[in-house]
Amino acid sequence: MRKKEIITAVGTLAIAAGIGFVMQSGETAKERYGAAGRPDVTAVAPVETGNAEVLLEVQQIELTSATDVPAIATPSVEPMVQRVSASATVDLPPIEQDIAPLAENCAIEA
Question: Rounded to whole angstroms, how far apart are CA atoms 108 and 50?
Fold first, then answer.
């Protein structure tokens, strides 16, 4: 039984490694992760200023955190709903016996 579990685990890992290799070496992966898929990034020299309080103007910024947020609708009060309060005490009859009587043949002994 133990040998079967080991063979199953080794087979599963081998298949997973094979699938990973095929996925990473495919044409789509080369397009996505290769040099052709990367945007052109150029380094910019730091700006030397004598005053530390100088603020730089931001250009070409896109705010993405608040786009396509659905508006939250506030619940409305329904005019046809009538609120009522229950009475503070409810008169119940005293419990003298079980609701369902026991069958003749049934006896409970403790």
Answer: 95
